[in-house]
Design a protein that fits this description.
By secondary structure, this protein is an all-alpha fold. The protein is built from 33 helices and no strands. Belongs to the VAC14 family.
């Protein structure tokens, strides 16, 4: 029989290799080792190959578990016998061994692990072309349920690491995709293997794992949520090492692309695990410090993550988010903003957040953007409705900041009319808002903008409004603000000069415009005349009240006016009741008596009546008689106010028709 037809191993040796007894298999393996040494010395590589193929085909692939064990022991012995010559036969040796990692018998898996350990020790750096297959095998062994297999896997892992760290030719580019695949596994034993390898590879001077960090950063961060404390600690240490390396590279002004990692960190800022959220946000904060201009395309994403953490249930994360948000805001202020639309989209979404702090921070961002170079105005169509909606917010702090933002928008002449018109429309749709916050909203606008301009524009807008009942109600609110709010002192001063001899046409025009609008509310119109000291006009108005529908609302407003007449605002009017020689004195007294006649006998009636009784006593004491009433007064004839009275009459006529 020729050599090629002879069995690669004797039948007796084959029977011993497949025996159920461990000692027989072990002795057979020693024979195989001796044969391999002899073949190596003689250079008979063909027969070596035949023996390996036979062990793989007839033993490791057998249905008999004892044969599979024998085949693996035989392959291990082959490796030992070949020593340094094993490198030439790795393509034949490794596949059957790796295949047995999936064997249902735990002892077979253990022997496969032992065989690969021997192959690795013998072949050393020659196994590197097969590293990915070996690493995949390690992942299977580390997740094995059998402790002997796990222990064997740990030994194998150690020798493979030794080989990789001592070799200058490890192909990290080829390994990273495999790392990316397995880093997503949640098996704690695989995670332990992976974080160990990441740390080892990162410690090798010739391997620059930092460039590949985006490929496995997400999985490494998610290990912080593992139930195993050792895995969490190892992952944390690895992350800190990488972050230190990133900062060190930034100090040397070396270019590095942080963008791909930003997206990962943004996602992890919403993780359910608080340590993951805290770590991701900490990294974002460091990136803000070192990234500067290169992060311009990621501002929107980073802002979204930061705002999400501002409302985090964990106090330390909220505190970190507050600091991070401020640093990001300062960064955008200094470097500019390329993604105005993207940032505003994030801010709009967070303006309706359930958390007050998030809404406040969002408004501060919008305020900053409005004050900077960013072109926000082109996005106002989408932004303004959200800002108007924030006026209904349950938090006063949010409303006040929102008003500041709206005022900033209104400071642009092109947007002034638009914003105030929108506010008026909102009041019309939300009566409770007008009742509860109308005064605050108007007063804040008057503080931050020009009160005269605001009132004149509101007067113009209201005159065009179709809902007459709403117009009258809003004028009542505006009038109370005008008469009581210290923020409107400048406007009151202008109105008080309206009928003085030296009053300019511009000053008189302010009164005229307000009067035309105020005519929708008779009591408000009368109080406007009292404020402007237009007493002749006031008396003419009172006479026309006979034609006005005297409702409960009218009487309530008249009652309020009497209370206001007793306030500091109307001290000049009360003192003018002493000036019996003043041309408008008779009109002032008759206007007040007219108001008194309109009131039911209530507290207001008695208050005003008492005031007028004092004036009557003054008349008796001075022997006053109405001589001036027959004289032509500079501002006293009804003709002087014909246009205004016509407007009042027509306006009230419209109201009457609408009832």
């Amino acid at each position: 029989m020729s050599d090629e037809h002879e069995p690669a191993l004797s039948l007796a040796l084959q029977r011993s290799l497949g025996d159920r007894g461990y000692e027989k298999r072990k002795n057979a393996a020693l024979e195989v080792e001796a044969i391999m040494k002899s073949l190596r010395e003689s250079g008979d590589t063909a027969k070596v190959k035949r023996i390996i193929e036979m062990l793989a085909r007839d033993f490791t692939a057998s249905v008999n578990p004892n044969h599979r064990k024998g085949g693996l022991i035989g392959l291990a012995a082959t490796t030992i016998g070949l020593t340094d010559g094993v490198a030439d036969h790795l393509p034949e040796l490794l596949p059957p061994v790796l295949h047995c990692f999936d064997d249902p018998e735990h002892r077979v898996r253990y022997y496969a692990c032992e065989a690969l350990y021997n192959i690795t020790k013998a072949a050393r750096g020659h196994i590197l072309p097969f590293f990915n297959q070996i690493f995949s095998g390690l992942c299977k062994l580390f997740s094995d349920v059998d402790m002997d297999v796990k222990n064997g896997a740990n030994l194998l892992d150690g020798v493979v690491k030794d080989v990789v760290t001592e070799s200058p030719s490890f192909d990290v580019d080829n390994f990273v995709p495999l790392l990316h695949k397995y880093i997503r596994k949640s098996n704690p034993f695989i995670r332990q293997l992976l974080v160990g390898w990441i740390s080892v590879l990162n410690s090798v001077p010739d391997i620059n794992l930092l460039d590949w960090l985006p490929e496995f950063l997400e999985g490494l961060i998610e290990m912080l949520g593992d139930g195993n404390r050792n895995i969490r600690n190892d992952a944390h240490n690895a992350l800190m090492t990488f972050l230190d390396a990133i900062k060190a590279r930034a100090d040397t002004a070396e270019d590095q692309d942080l963008g791909p990692m930003v997206d990962i960190l943004v996602k992890e800022c919403s993780a359910s695990n608080k340590l993951i959220r805290h770590t991701a946000l900490s990294w974002l904060r460091e990136f803000i410090k070192i990234g500067r201009h290169q992060l311009r395309n990621y501002h929107a994403h980073m802002l979204g993550a930061t705002l999400n953490c501002v409302s985090d249930p964990e106090p330390d994360i909220r505190q970190l988010a507050t600091v991070t948000n401020q640093e990001l805001l300062e960064l955008v202020k200094s470097t500019g903003l390329d993604q105005v639309g993207g940032v505003l989209k994030v801010l709009k979404e967070n303006l309706v957040s359930s958390d007050v702090a998030t809404r406040i921070v969002s408004l501060k961002w919008i305020r900053m953007l409005l004050g900077g170079a960013a072109n926000v105005n082109v996005h106002l169509d989408a932004l303004l409705p959200v800002l108007l909606g924030a006026l209904k917010d349950s938090s006063d702090d949010v409303v006040l900041l929102d008003l500041e933002v709206l005022a900033k928008i209104s400071s642009a002449e092109a947007e002034f009319h638009r914003v105030l018109t929108s506010v008026v429309d909102l009041f019309g749709k939300e009566p409770r808002l007008l009742e509860g916050r109308g005064s605050v909203i108007i007063r804040r606008f008057c503080v931050m903008l020009d009160s005269k301009s605001i009132y004149l524009l509101l007067a113009t807008v209201l005159q065009q409004h179709r809902d007459l009942e709403f117009v009258s109600l809003l004028i009542h609110t505006l009038n109370l603000i005008l008469l009581t709010a210290h923020e409107l002192q400048d406007l009151r001063d202008i109105l008080k000069r309206s009928f003085q001899p030296n009053a300019t046409a511009e000053v008189r025009n302010v009164f005229d415009q307000l009067f035309r609008c105020w005519s929708h509310n008779p009591v408000a119109t009368l109080s406007l005349c009292f404020l402007a000291q237009a007493y002749d006009l006031a008396f003419e108005l009172v006479k026309r009240f006979a034609k006005v529908d005297i409702t409960v609302g009218f009487l309530m407003q008249a009652d309020k006016l009497v209370q206001l007449l007793e306030s500091p605002i109307f001290v000049p009017l009360r003192l003018q009741l002493l000036e019996t020689d003043h041309p408008q004195y008779p009109s002032l007294v008759k206007a007040l008596y007219g108001l008194l006649m309109l009131l039911p006998q209530s507290t207001a009636f008695r208050t005003l009546g008492s005031r007028l009784e004092v004036v009557g006593g003054l008349h008796q004491h001075l022997g006053y008689h109405n001589a001036n009433s027959k004289k032509k007064k500079d501002s006293g004839s009804a003709g002087d106010f014909e246009d205004l009275l016509y407007v009042f009459d027509e306006t009230q006529s419209v109201h009457s028709s609408a009832r």
